[in-house]
Amino acid sequence: MPESEQIMRAPHRHHAVVTKALAAMVVAIALAGAVSALRDSGASEAPSQPVAFKPSMHSGTTTTTTLAPAVVDVSLPRPQAPPENAYADEPHIVLGRIEIPKIGLDAPLNQGISLRSIDRGPSHWPGTALPGQPGNVVVAGHRVSKTKPFRNIDQLVPGDEVIFTVDARRSVYVVTGSQVVTPDAMEIVNQTPDATGTLFACHPPGSARYRYVVFLKLATGPAPTGPDTSSG
User: Fold this and answer.
1) What is the CATH number of the domain that holds 64?
2) Distance CA 73, CA 50 (A)
3) Domain residues for 96?
4) pLDDT tens digits for 47-104?
5) Total domains in the fold of the chain
6) Residue 67 has what DSSP assignment?
7) Is the whole-model pTM more than 0.70?
8) What are the residues facing 127 on neighbouring strands?
9) 3-state secondary structure of 21
10) Are strands 105-111 and 210-224 parallel, antiparallel or unpaired?
11) What are the backbone dihedrals phi and psi of residue 101, each rounded to the nearest 5 degrees, phi first?
12) For residues 159 and 26, what is the distance between their CA atoms, to the nearest angstrom?
């Protein structure tokens, strides 16, 4: 199947699994609360029913165990789920530019994760960090179709520069490593407390069987530049 038709499929399956797991967690918490309420009211229960938590008895006083709510770090960016339709319409937004001197790339950086956006060139995954900010800035691109901006990303090695210019501010990242993963490896969009980056494209060229992933970290920036020429 063509590269452009498969790059977005795995995230849908992943999103469905996560949704089902969250739903199961909510049901489990609700059941635990119901058991605790019955005990506090003196209602009887069948002795054969297993329970996850038992009240502790001390000097005739009944104490129920309450779990603390999970702590969620809300400060990190939250990647947007890909659209159901891989070719869904998205606004044509150009965030700035991306440069990779090692492979001769200097192109507009689009915003969007549908294939309509990626077909225009390197495209920033909405909801992931913006260049220069804490978090993981994730950018997708084609290798053999359309403008094929990431055709040679497998030539990048640690220390090579990837430069983003957004809102007239220049952020220089350096390559830290690379990896070949399967299309369902959604951990590549995970956000990080430090300023990091991820480039990915189908692999090998002309096939959508794997993804070639390049990992980055912020080296310098963001620093002011001259007038932004991203529209060119």
Assistant:
1) 2.40.260.10
2) 34
3) 1-232
4) 333 333 333 333 444 444 445 555 544 589 999 998 889 889 899 999 999 999 999 9
5) 1
6) P
7) no
8) none
9) helix
10) unpaired
11) -55, -35
12) 45
